[in-house]
Amino acid sequence: MDLNLLKRRGPDEWHISPRGKMRVPGVIYASEALVRDMDEKVYEQVTNVATLPGIVRASYAMPDAHWGYGFPIGGVAAFDPDLGGVVSAGGVGFDISCGVRALRTGLTVEDLQPVKEQLADALFHRIPAGVGSTGKVHLDRHEMDAMLTGGASWAVGQGYGMHEDLEFIEEHGRMTGAKPECVSDYAKKRQQDEMGTLGSGNHYLEVQQVVQIFDAEAAAIFGFRAGDLVVSIHCGSRGLGHQIGTEFLKSMVMSAARYHIELPDRELACAPINSEVGQEYLGAMRAAINCALANRQIVTHLVRQVFADLLPQATLALLYDVSHNTCKVEEHVIDGTATRLFVHRKGATRAFGPGHPDIPPALRAVGQPVLIGGTMGTASYVLVGTEESMTLAFGSACHGAGRSMSRHQALRQWHGRDVVKELASRGILIRSPSMRGVAEEAPGAYKNVSEVVDAADDAHLARKVARLEPLICVKG
Amino acid sequence: MHPPRSETVQGSWEHFPHQADVGVRGIGSTKEEAFECAAQALTAVITDLGSVAPTQSVPIVCEAPDDELLLVDWLNALVYEMATRRMLFSRFNVRFNDHSLHATAWGEPIEVARHQPDVEVKGATYTELSLKQDEEGRWVAQCVVDV
Question: Which residues of B touch A431 (CB under 8 A)?
């Protein structure tokens, strides 16, 4: 990105002054090097989002921002319903509530060594991953609606996991306001056999090792020590979310003129929050959030079963579950007044600071855990929300490394088998049904996650707590 | 049912870069052919097109207010059929009737070991969406797909 387009307001804060139809400024939080590497399309997309009706304060981009659809991936924007604000299917994306959860195993890396290969094989065998895979949970119409209303809470009721898990999931594991009747039969059919599956692309299940602690106080509250084993699960709302995204994008593109909304890009498809289409989308999108929460809950149960067989002393308590692609109603202070806003996070993590009532009591004093997924060859990070974050970007932070290379380029540059071999020589076991998929997800195809996380920390969006490195990675 | 030879696609397809995902582009002497080739490009995101035997046929009908939206609908209909039937498709026959599309897709059930499908397509997007004729009069149909 051309730095001349931006005004630097701090070491990691860059502003785009409102021009043309922009209603608010654009703000990018990133280091100079990261901004330089960002595609010009990120600039275009941040400014396009700033033109949408009812947007408040600014259109934000996180340090991992890259060219998305409509919104940049790593985009955050909030809308006020009383100012004609909109909800955007494009601003949430196709993989609704795709997210990450982390589980403390209560084990150390020494415990893993004797069974590492067996554990990798068993996780790969037990957790359905990749294109065309199906889960063991098949839902009929009635059960589907119960799942879409109940989320992870429904899953616990069905015997998947423990009641204690729910406290450590955003929305306590159940998004209120879900309307299964707004979810099409097509979307439900697409989900019928996909509960408890990882999916493909950048989704993964990893066994990781805590290699570095940056913030001893927060780490103690999170229950992390160097050498600890952690399980991270990255997946979303599967076919149901994809289908809802697809259908509402179309209906919002078609209804835009009716609501006098001028779309600078059709992918920004949106509808007024206080409109029939807007309300139907919110009902369906919330159902998809519940689907993602239930899905990660079922996968968690499968992981616990595998550990029970091979490492029965493992405890596998949930640290936290965060979602990346959502629109949520939150209260934020605008011009000194607490205001109810519809906050869109597209490829961005909620990162509430200490004391926020939505954070579980056990973690509230320090802030919300922010789980940042890396690549299968580098590292993941756990951060914590800061007080400043609430005023910087509505309590949001980055969500991952972000690709630096297209899938096509990656496929030309690497062979899956070579990637697996190279990582094995570094002690990282990869299990995947597709070697093509492994090549496309090669660590070299991503930005440096440490640089992204450092920028988030420097900008005070979230503070670094721990660095985790993969030991086993099941790739979809 | 096998696709009749006369209806075998004559155009070409390609992928174009998008930072996180993939752009699919079909090029043909007619709009129909461009749509058929874009569908081939879609399959090629997932697997080697040549590995998919066109042994089973699936009928597809979609409708949209304009041809560009119809292209996205067509690709999304294929995404849906791939997901719910757990199939991959390699040959296509597309016919237009005003604002509706009537098509047949030929393919086979996914076999992970043989097809090595690398990624499932979540949906076709309106990003970089266009349907137009190039200087040589060929139809070019394209958009980015989310994977």
Answer: none
Contact A434 B117 (CB under 8 A): yes
Cα separation of the two ends of chain B: 30
Domain range summary for chain A, segments of one domain joined by +: 3-475
Give the integer Cα–Cα distance in Å for A241 and A288. Answer: 5
Active site residues of A: 399
Residues of the domain holding B134: 11-146
Q: Give the confidence band of B17 by pLDDT, cuts at 50, 70, 90.
A: confident
Task: Identify all chain A residues contacting B116, using CB atoms and an 8 Å cutoff.
Answer: 433-437
Q: Is residue B1 part of a domain?
A: no
The domain total for chain B is 1
Residue B7 reports pLDDT greater than 70: no
Task: Establish, for the pair of chains A and B, how many residue pairs have beta carbons separated by less than 8 Å.
Answer: 127
Q: Do A69 and B119 touch (CB under 8 A)?
A: no
Render pLDDT for A326-358 as a digit per residue (tens, 0 to 9): 999 999 999 999 999 999 999 999 999 999 999
State the first-to-last Cα distance of chain A, in angstroms, to the nearest integer: 32
B117 chain-A contacts, CB cut-off 8 A: 130-132, 200, 434, 436-437
ipTM for the assembly: 0.88
Q: pLDDT of B92-108, one tens digit each? A: 999 999 889 999 999 99
Q: CA-CA distance, A383 to A350, in Å (whole number)?
A: 11
Cβ-defined contact of B126 to A435 (cutoff 8 Å): no
d(CA B88, CA A227): 44
Spatial distance between the Cα atoms of A344 and A102, rounded to a whole number of angstroms: 23
Closest-approach residue (CA) in chain A for B65: A254
CB-count exposure of residue B60 (10 Å: 0-12, 13-18, 19+):
buried
Q: What is the mean pLDDT of chain A?
A: 95
A369: its two tokens:
């855990």
Superfamily designation of domain A3-475? tRNA-splicing ligase RtcB (3.90.1860.10)
Residue of B nearest to A250 (CA): B69
